[in-house]
Amino acid sequence: MTQKLTPSASPLPPPGRDKPSKEGYTEGLMTQAASFTARLNPPQARAVSHSQGPLLVFAGAGSGKTRVITYRIANLIARHQVPPHRILAVTFTNKAAGEMRERLEHLIGPKVARDIWVGTFHATCSRLLRRYAADVGLTRDFVIYDDSDQHAVIARVIKDLKYDEREVNPKNMLGRILKEKQEGRGPGDMVAQGFQGKTLQEVFAGYERALKLANAVDFEDLIGHMMRLAESKNLPAGQELRNCFDHVLVDEFQDTNQVQYRLVRALVPRTRNLCAVGDDDQSIYRWRGGDVRLIRNFRNDFPDATVVKLEQNYRSTARIVRAALAVISPSLEREPKQLFTQNEEGSRITVVTARDEHDEAAYVTGRMRQLLDEGASPDQLAVFYRIHAMSRVLEESFRIARIPYRVIGGVRFFDRAEVKDLLAYLRVLLNPRSDVDLLRIINVPARGIGESTLARLTEMAAERGCSLYDALGPTADSPTLAAAPRKKLATFLDLLNSYRRFATTLTPSKLAELIFSDTGYKHSLEEENSAEADARLQNIKELIGSMREYEEEMAEAGEAATLASYLERVTLSTSAEEAKDQKQVSLMSIHSAKGLEFDHVFVLGLEDGIFPYERPGDEDGSDLEEERRLAYVALTRARKQLFLLRATNRTLFGFSRPNPPSRFLRDLPRHDVSLIVTENAALPGRRAPIRPMPSWSSGSSFHSARPASPPSRRFPEERQVEPDPSSFLDESGLPRKGTRVIHQRFGSGTITAVDGISSPPRVTVYFPSWGEKKVLLEHLKLG
DNA sequence: GTACGTTCGATTTTT
DNA sequence: TCGAACGTAC
């Protein structure tokens, strides 16, 4: 046995195990080590072979980032003899963590890869927090509250504090509290100003108290608790944590928030072996706490950091890379980088001007059909939009055209009421102090525990300063309650306690089944006999199925499928929607597109107001900066072909309004763009030709209830407008200066200025006999 | 306790 | 426009 490489007493064993593997880690890997760097370009190789001290990698879109991280880890293990379980690699999504793990297994073998700490910030911290729960005043069985749980807690706190709910909005409060927490502040040290600040502070303090009392943490706490432990100078846990890892690597570093940053920094005090990999140009989660300054100012905290820039793009055509670079370049304060590629030129980027969202959808649908007919694989086609609400029109169009699609994001499986109900039962059994869960199920299905009974119970819990569950017992001899409600509460308590006995003996799926039938929940759904109830039954079936799957999976890995581990997994992972079949076109928001790539990409709604999305109060323009980065992310997802669409008129949230083209379109390099104007787009000066009403063919009357698009709108009847300098419109669809135009009242004139922002669009025109006039674009014709 | 009408509000989303 | 979330009436 080669023991020499296994470390002596290590504070932390490999994830999920007691002891590190006994095998010599580097056996057989040494020979591979040389080949790691052979397949890399020079900057990639520099990042991979760097072994000591801070490292900052700016990884441009499609520059082989994951490859660099995984190779670097392999290199650390094989060449520098770093024990795998002393390496921590954190990501933001489970998907990214899974991919990293998979590639590591491939590279260095499953046995070695298994010992590396690879996971999301939250999963990693959750695992560590189970170990150190006592140090932060929790028990090992703490539960994790998701947003709706958080919302419920806040609402209760506001009510308890007797605030007027109209004055103190729970959503708003929660948002502010999360922001404080993401920046590492508690109710005590937040920057509270004025009346608003005082209120916030009270609610914040109440919220924190409620969580502690419930033995619960929110997502921020998972990281916050670990950060405070790791930073603490006096606690033994702090000492231990600071000695756990020899190397910490962070992926998507531009998305880290203050707390996450402080945590990883605290974990490597001795070695300062922190490797940050990210791209400030792709920082799009500011509203979630992500702070792009952390990557940009990394060198302030680590002045000796080695900086590597990966600028060669291996994903997209040259035209796409140029366009993306042109869109991001006007960004202020960005780290200087020049994305480039050796890939072929590729086809021009198509900028399409449609009349409205239906016209836009018709174009996309037509093109999709064409691409599919030409043999493109549906899973290589994607449509992105800024807001989910924009998917509906496209969906209708796709459905009529029978284009198979799936929408990513939106309503999630684990947000369904019945799923949450059943999970709440399970969580209460594990951690009865969780008030939010208890309140959720105390009367589901109906057991006659109504509002007034609950008020009593809540009151009693408040008097005793205990959880609702702990207040249940004493209600038995409470004089303030009538006999009937007392009995009901007692029955409920008995029910919970009897289930609790099964919590450790039954598997999660069996327990869930038991609860579902035994409580009468199942029966009540079956009785209802409606389509909705059927769907709910189906969802529960699916939930229990997912539990069984989980149990099988754990059995294969030789681990125990406990209730606690299942619940943790459920709250820390999104949904089961991944890995569906590959025969569908993907529709998603640009945010969810990050990290993905497709051959052909359509981006909808390139209009000022929509994308960049505009809302009041962006004085410093930082929102606009982030929108620009979002545009960069959207463009860099495409491998071969990119379609950017805009509608001159768009109805959204019930309001129809004309939108000027997105300012981002104006940044595109003219020679890499083809302009298309759909047949229906009523462009200023060129009215859409009046066509005879098309006669409906017999076949299409099937959908006559609401014909989405008359045949006249069908692709490919569009005009192509070459970006020629004499054209009335420039490449962003705006009129050019110097263009001769005719106005009905003022006669002929020349455009002297263009207002690209206003909506509806206006231009300034010099009319020889009237002087300069500002007029609406739609009143002009080409002269 | 449920069924229905009404209001309100509506980027982006992981964990 | 549309959906969820809330309040009122049975």
Q: What would your notes on this structure say?
A:
The protein is α/β, with parallel strands linked by helices and 783 residues long. It has 29 helices and 25 strands. Strands 13-14-12-15-16-11-19-20 form an eight-stranded mixed sheet. Helix 12 (258-267) links the parallel strand 6 and strand 7. The protein is globular. It binds a DNA duplex (15 and 10 nucleotides) through helix 6, helix 10 and helix 27.
The radius of gyration computed from the alpha-carbon positions, rounded to a whole number of angstroms, is 30 Å
| Overall average residue pLDDT | 84
What characteristic shape results from the CA principal axes?
A: globular
The end-to-end span amounts to 88 Å
Q: What order do the strands of the largest sheet run in, or round the barrel if closed?
A: 13-14-12-15-16-11-19-20
